[in-house]
Amino acid sequence: MAGDAEDDQTMIRGMYGPDVTFLGVPRAELDALDGLDVVFLGAPFDSGTSYRSGARFGPQAIRTTDYLPHDASRPHLALGVDPLAELRIADAGDVLMPPGETEESLRRLEAAVQAVASAGAIPVILGGDHTVTLPDATGVARHVGWGRVSLIHFDAHADTGDTQFGSLYGHGTPMRRLIESGAVRGDRFLQIGLRGYWPEPPTLAWMAEQRMRSFEMSEVVNRGLDECLADALAIAVDECDGVFLSVDVDVVDPGMAPGTGTPEPGGLTTRQLLDAVRRIAMSVPLAGIDVVEVSPPYDHAEVTAFVGNRVVLEALSGIAWRRRRLAADPARPARDPAGPLLDGRGEPAG
Ligand SMILES: [Mn+2]
């Protein structure tokens, strides 16, 4: 393919096809993003995987996996908002990330994310393996402020390796690169759902030196996810101007999310993850989001692709709800999700 016209191209509508947008939202071009609240970018990259590949097919699976029409409308029952209609949302397609060309791929993605953030929109990046969080959070920090973005990271793995098979770039190292560069402060790095048999003690010691806050599953089980999240949310907004949310679908137990590259048994339930993502989006100013490690070739009955799609919708619904609450317009109240769904039957009949 050397010498093809696409050598100079950095965006492509569907790198592995089909040419679709997230649930039918309008198409956007990177050089015309004015007025948008949220912009999707696909990151069809899995050259950073250490075990099973296939996450390059994640973006299209997350965009398309739903049983409802792709009509750019999703009224959220609990929150009473329709994020795809209330927010100005568009999909800019995939960043062209050639397999094997890791550094060039990451450079292109970072530039695209920065373009979205600089236009005033929240970038929502659909991965791709977790390598992409390095350019994703870096691109956001270049706009929001270096060291002024905190990172809430759902994952079975810490992804803080020094190198991966001798390489600086891979899905096991992005969080270390972000802290080393200063794009994200180590003491504003919140990790939730860690478990299993990696990393080894020297890497844990490095993480402790950076003053990262990592919630292993045993702490999550012992104290409860809600309490751990409360700790994380308090840290996330301290001396930071925005929060980047990175969701590795392998944080969910592989029984509920089998389609991923490095499954680790014993994770969160899908219900826990969706509730947590919703709460985060309702509570703090999100400056960027990525959903990574959905690997359709290892999926069964689209279970994992559905999880990825719903993580995105919960985040966007929480953002729309938070904007309603801050606007405080009596005509468009922010619904209390803990209350009864329907009017008139809230109290037991006397
Ligand atoms: Mn990860």
Q: pLDDT under 50 segments (min length 5)?
A: none
Strand tally:
9
> What profile does the largest beta sheet have?
9 strands, mixed
Oligomer: single chain
Q: How many whole angstroms does the radius of gyration measure?
A: 19 Å
CATH homologous superfamily identity: Ureohydrolase domain
The end-to-end span amounts to 75 Å
Q: What is the top-level CATH class?
A: Alpha Beta
Relative strand content: 5-15%
Q: Which word captures the global form?
A: globular
Structure description:
- By secondary structure, the protein is α/β, with parallel strands linked by helices.
- The chain has one domain: 3-Layer(aba) Sandwich (Arginase, Chain A).
- Helices cover 33% and strands 15% of the residues.
- The chain contains 10 helices and 9 strands.
- The protein has a 9-stranded mixed β-sheet with strand order 1-3-2-4-9-8-5-6-7, with helices on both faces.
- The chain is globular, with a radius of gyration of 19 Å.
- The termini are far apart.
- The mean pLDDT is 96.
- Residues 130, 155, 157, 159, 171, 248, 293 line the site of manganese (II) ion.
